[in-house]
Amino acid sequence: MKLQKTIKGEGRLNGTGLFGGEQSGVIFRPAPEDAGIVFVRTDVPGTVRIPAIAPNIAERSRRTSVKKGDVSIETVEHCLAAIRALEIDNIIVEVEGPELPAPDCSSAEYVNVLKQAEIVEQ
Question: What is the pTM of this model?
Answer without folding.
Answer: 0.94
